[in-house]
Each structure stands twice: as structure tokens, then as C-alpha cells.
Amino acid sequence: MKKFSTMLTVLRRLKNDTQGTFSIMWAVSMTGVLLSCGAAYDMTQIHKARALAQFTADHMALAASISVDFKNPDQFTAGVSYPYESIGAGGIDFTGTITGVVEYDIVDTADAGNEDLDDNDKSRLLARATVKGTYSTAFMGILSNFATVSFEATSDVAYAASHGTPASVFFIVDNSGSMNSYDNNHVRKLTGLKASMNAFMDIMDNIDTNGDDVFRTALYPYSQDYQNNYSFIDNDGIIPAKVKHPEWGILNHGAIMAMTSLYGTDSSGALKDAANAFAYEGDIHNAKNGTDEPLKFAIFMTDGANNKSYECGTEWVANREYWIDTYHGWNRRYNSRQWWFDKWVIHYPASGGSNQQVCKRDYWFDKRSLATCAEMKKDDVIIYAIAYDVAEDQKVHAEKFMKQCSSGDDYFKSASNASALDAAFAEIGDSIVEEVIRVKH
């Protein structure tokens, strides 16, 4: 009541302030608040622009180096400035200003291992991409000279293909019914997932020019049919008809677009199938390219917690104590002491027991999933976990579960909408590219 009265007083003063002093104070204070919020927004956008520039430079340098490695015509002509749309890094340049330039045959003087090599040995050469752009601030330029902010990124990539390490990248993704709902940007969640995965594959495809021995990919979509209505969903949640088993090269767009959203959530089967497949990847890579220890990445995504379920098992159940009222031969049994018990009531202490079926409702799917995550990490699989637009009532539980499954806090991503999901996939793709191929500086 006191707060309400104070607000009325403030509004009354504003109304009666004929000289405008109060209005000026109000306007100045509100302007300060708006500018502070606006500056924070601009700083976020500048950070995003710089990250996009670095990712674009990495992609451009990789594509250029691979075109040299495999004696293909250079994808980029040296010294020519290419607009973002021609670079092929995927996604959108929200600044509208990004351009990139490539230089070839840069001597890698920073690599001490090159000191004993001949000057013309390609093992010492790099392709260097330089990406530049400007961001027009929305608020910071109002009271400062920062109307536009320039950003720049460079990336050096070695020519020699031997610098790369082949990899297997498996996707374990949520196809539950909630993926048919809309995120807070009004994008259907399954549509957002498909777009992010297709963009990811486009980037990988540009990098893996020959498509033979760098990447292997697989797709394990999951749902859960707790009423056994759908024969195409296995009891452990995996959707066999939508699975794409590991193959060389990227996942084709058709496999991604074929995913549908239906029913509940059980990630345990999909994770287990992926773990089983990872166990064979060393031998497969070794037979193809002589590398028996490829990098292994699992990208695990969900938009909510796994469902709870009842599971039954046999447990030893001890016999409880009890009392028998023998008065007048009634022989009535009681499982707890009553206040009126007298000499006619005989006590039988707890003793012995038997194996009985016991059913309990719990997050069994989580427990099996986490056991598999531990198994994969022991097998040197790097697990990225993405929580996509998780409902508030599930957020704490679901994100805790995903963090536990991931390879650490740096490998867990939370995406509130399709744009954030796209950024998460791009960031993961950038990390994988740097580890798999030959980004050096």
C-alpha cells in the first residue's frame, strides 16, 4: 500500500510540474537507462561479429589449403576480396560488411619444426585468410565516437594433409513430440534443428573437399513410446528407420530432413548405439588412412528432460514385524503397534524374507544414458551437449543431466531459440574443424 501511495505521489508531481523540471529529470534518467542497456546490446553484437569473423577466416583458410593439397583449382584467387556470401561459411553475416582475402605460400616461421626443411618444402607453407568488417552500433554512437566498430580476424592453415587428424562425428538428437512446438523466436524447434545441422554439414562439406578419408558421420534420432503405440520406435527410444549408420563424408540433407517429432523422450538407446559404433571407428579409420586413433565427437541435443518410467526387478524384501490379537480367537493381524494392545496381543518380530518383484518410478532413462556417456568418455569420445529451449519446469533437471553427460562445462551449450542453436552448432563446428584439420594460428 505504501509503494502504491508513493507511485501516485510521483505521478501527481509529474502531472503538476508546469516548469518541466521533474519531466527533465525523468527524461534524463530514462535516457541513461536506455543508453546503458543499448551499450550492453552493442557489446554483445560486437563480440558476435568478432566470433563470426574468426570462424569465417578459419573456414576460408581451410578451404584454400585443401584446394592446394588435392591439386584442385584454387577455390579463392590470391589477393581478391570476397564478400561473405561467396566464402561459403554458412549462416548469415548480420553486419552485412564481412569480406575475406586469401594469401598463399606463406612461410610458417612460427613452427620450430620447419627450421630444417627446404624453403620449397610445402610442409612449411600456409594459406592465410584475413577477414574484415564493421559493425554499426545501435546505441553507442549516440554519445560517443563509436558509431561504427571495425573488427578483423586471421587464420593460418598448413598445406600438408598429414597435419590433419581424421575424425568421426556422430549426432544424437531429440525427435520427441515437444520438438514440434515453437521456440521463443516462433521457429518450430525441429525446423531449427534441421537448419542448424544442414548448415553444419555445408561447412564440413566445403572443408572435406575429397570426401574420402577425413570425416565419418552418423545420425541417431530418438523419441520414446511409453504406450507401445508405434512399432517403429524401439523400447529404448531409438528410431531405427531414421538412423544413419557411420559412413565416410557428411550426412546428406535428405537424412536430416527426414526426421520427425513424435511422443516422449528416452535418449538411452541412441547414446548406446552411438557408443557401440564408436568402438569400431579406430579399426575403420586405420584400414582407410592408417590412423587407428581418430578424433571422436558426439553431439548430443535435447529440448527437455527424459521421461520418468516404471521399472521392475526382483529384490530381497524382509518380513516386517506384526502383532496378532488372539482375544476370543479373533487372530486379527496388525502391522503397527496400537495404543490399546494388551496381554492378548502377541508380538512377532521381523525375521527372514523373500525375493519379490518391486516396481519403482524414477529417471531410469537418465541413469542408463549417463552410464553410456561415461563409457564413451572412457573411450576418448568428446561429448558436446546442447539443451535447446528447455521448458522452465524441466530446465534445472535437464541441464544438470546434459552437463553430466558432456565432456565438461566448456562442452555444454544452452540455446534458447533457433538462432542460439545455430550459433551453438557453428561454435562446435569451429572447434571440431580446428582439431581435425590444420588451423595453426
Keywords:
441 residues, alpha/beta, Rossmann fold, 3 domains, 6-stranded mixed beta sheet, 4-stranded antiparallel beta sheet, 9 helices, 15 strands
Number of DSSP strands?
15
Helix content: 25-40%
CATH superfamily of the largest domain: von Willebrand factor, type A domain
Largest sheet strand order: 7-6-5-8-14-15
Measured distance between first and last alpha carbons: 63 Å
* Poorly predicted runs of 5 or more residues: none
Q: What sort of overall outline do the alpha carbons produce when their principal axes are compared?
A: elongated
Task: State the domain count.
Answer: 3
- Given this structure, which CATH class of the largest domain is correct? Alpha Beta
Overview of the structural elements:
There is one protein chain. With 441 residues, the chain is an alpha/beta fold. It folds into three domains: 39-162, no CATH class; 164-308 and 363-436, von Willebrand factor, type A domain (Rossmann fold), CATH 3.40.50.410; 313-360, no CATH class. 37% of the residues lie in helices and 24% in strands. The chain has nine helices and 15 strands. It has helices spanning 2-16, 21-69, 84-87, 189-207, 253-257, 268-289, 364-378, 392-405, 418-436; strands at residues 82-83, 99-107, 125-136, 148-158, 167-174, 215-222, 244-248, 295-302, 309-318, 322-325, 332-334, 345-348, 353-362, 381-388, 412-415. Helix 4 links the parallel strand 5 and strand 6 (215-222). Helix 6 runs parallel beside helix 7. The chain starts with a helix and ends in a 5-residue tail after the last helix. The mean pLDDT is 82.
